[in-house]
Each structure stands twice: as C-alpha cells, then as structure tokens.
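Justification of resources, computational component.

The compute hours requested in this renewal are based largely on the per-chain cost of generating structure records like the one below. Each record pairs the submitted sequence with a full structure-token output. That output is archived, and it is also reused by downstream analysis tasks.
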Amino acid sequence: MDFGLTDEQRMIQETVYKWALNELGPIQEKIDEEDWFPPDFFKKCAEIGILGITIGEEYGGLDGDVLMQTIAVEQMSRICPGLAMTYGAHSNLCANNIHKNARKELKEKYLPPLVAGEAVGALGLTEPNAGSDAMGMKTRAAKKGNKYILNGSKMFITNGPIADTILVYAKTAPEKGAKGISAFIVEKDFPGYSVSRKLKKCGMRGSPTGELLFDNCEVPAENLVGVENEGVHVVTSGLDIERIVLAGGSLGMAQQALDYSIRYAVDREQFGQPIANFQMIQQKLADMYARTEAARLLVYRAATVAQESPRGGKGTELTKLAASAILFAAETATWVCDQAVQIHGGYGYCLEFPVQKLWRDAKLYEIGAGTSEVRRLIIARELTREEFARKQQR
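The structure output for this chain reads:
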C-alpha cells in the first residue's frame, strides 16, 4: 500500500486548509455563537473548485477520487467542522450519489448547478422513527400518471432548511421491505414539499439541519434515480462512501485539537515550567497523536478501497472497512477533543477557547451516518458472514 499522497491529493489538502483558515477562521466564532450560515459559503467553495471533486469533468467537476473528497472534509474540519459537514452533505451525499446512480439526463440537469454552487444539495434518508433502522422508513411514493406522489417526512437532514436539490428515499412497494425502496430527486419548489423546522444543536452549529415534509409532493416520473424498487443499492453503496468521507471530519477535529493542545502545553506554565514537561501531559499528547495517526491510516485505506470498488455494496470488504473507519475515527475524535479540554483545564471549558467547540462538534459523528453501535453490528455481520455460509453448507 502506498502511504504517500499524489500531487492532486496534496494540492487539495493544502488548498482547502489555507482557504478554510483565511475564509472561515475569522468568522468561525460568529458561526458557532449565532448558529449562522454564511450565505456565500457554497459560492466560495465553487471558486476553489471543491464542490465537484468526485464529479465528472463533463459536469464541471474534477473527476477526482474518494480520498481527495475525504481530505477536503478533513482539512475544512480543522477550522469549521459544521460547515465541513454541510459541504460533505452537498458534494458527497447529494451530488456524488446522483453522479453514480442517475441517468445522463438527470446528471446534465442537476450536477452543473451543484458543482457551481448555484444550488444546495441534501440527502433525505433518516426519518423521525427510522434512524438506525433506515430500511424501516415510512415515507411512501405512489406513481400516478407521469408523476410520483410522495408522503412522509425526513428528520435530521443536513442542509435541509437551505437545500434546492434533495435526493430522497421512499418506499414504492412497502410490502417488499428493503426491496421496495426507490430514490428520487426532489426540488424545493415541487408542490407538496416543505421544511417544517430548523433544528437547534449543541454542536456543528452553522450547519443547517431540519425536518422535511412531503404532503402529496408531486415529483416528475423522470426524476426517479435508478430503477424503481431497487433504491436499496443506492442507499447501501452511498452509505459506504458517506461514512468514509465524513470520517474525514473526525480526523480534522482530532488533528486540530492535538495542535491546540501542543501549543497550549508549551505556552502554559505551572510550578515554574511549561506543563509540556509534566509526564501526565506528555502521555496525553503522545496518545492523542498515536490514535489520530492510526485513525487517519484506516480512513485513508478505506477511501482507497472505495475508489477501487466505487459501488461498494452489501457483503463487501468496503462495507466493513467503511464502518470501521468512521467508528474508530469518530470515537478517536471524541476522546482526543476531551483530552484537549482536560489539558487546557478551566480555560478549555470557557467559550473563548476553541477546544470546547471541537469537543461539542466531535460527538455528532458517533451518531450520524449510523451510530457507533450500528457500525459495530455491521462490522460483526461482515466478519461472520462467510463462516455462517460455510456452516449452512455443512
């Protein structure tokens, strides 16, 4: 395995971090304190060419790989994790899923505006009573003439309150369970679609999150993504890539918490010397570094495998790796950020120091894109799948 980055990947790494530092750094406190979303965010992302990293050049994208996308989320998360999540939901959950699964006419219609920052994208999967049990969704879609009529709701949708283009999952054949799911592209102006509320969160502030309602929502039949009743393949392959890309957010937060902690430990003096000289602080810093580097290697490996097997799918090495990557990276970030607060002491608990913000933000990735508990179930399922099959043959 080659552990080095390509020139293109390194360029994304450097470009995104410098851009985030200069553009988002000065306003990150306002974003967090006011739960404020800068209205020119997507336009500025488009200017540096990162909205279509994995999108084909014919649609305005870079035709890059999953690792480049992951690195972009990682570097932006070092400065503003909330907006990095918003960026990931737009470019990966929405645009990349459309790019991988929609027919050419839909790609030509929806991808260029998403890549140019002229439209905001979102993904509608989670529901009020179907979070970890995504396949238990209640949203329904019934074909009526040249339209599908959608009824139901979606909850905890990143970018929901500001989205123009939403990739929505609904059951077209409820009696078939997971085999009766279909995917649709919904526009915010379609009759029957609305945003019922914007949710208030303790972390990842500035990233608009909301509940979406579909009340006899009329969706043109041509906006069906893929084949009717085969949307589960869109869901599962999309979740694998989503978990890897969003794991980059955990890497960014862990790295920034470590950077802050090293600087503070060297500057802060107690008992006549920098606290970096104390063995307990040294142990914390060493463990924070080791866990962050281990998480990065796992996430980068998963991203590399994802590029080699772009559709992923049930029962693949990618599914196991993707769940492992975000499980380990998310729990590492939460732990590292907690240690950062401890190293900063009372100052770490004050709002004027940034480590408390990373501490609040990091927890979400243990919940979103499948909880840590669900990720462990997925990993265990994949580990035992082949052995169960052999047992049945005996």
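The chain has three domains: 7-119, 122-225, 231-393. The domain at 7-119 is CATH 1.10.540.10 (Butyryl-Coa Dehydrogenase, subunit A; domain 1).
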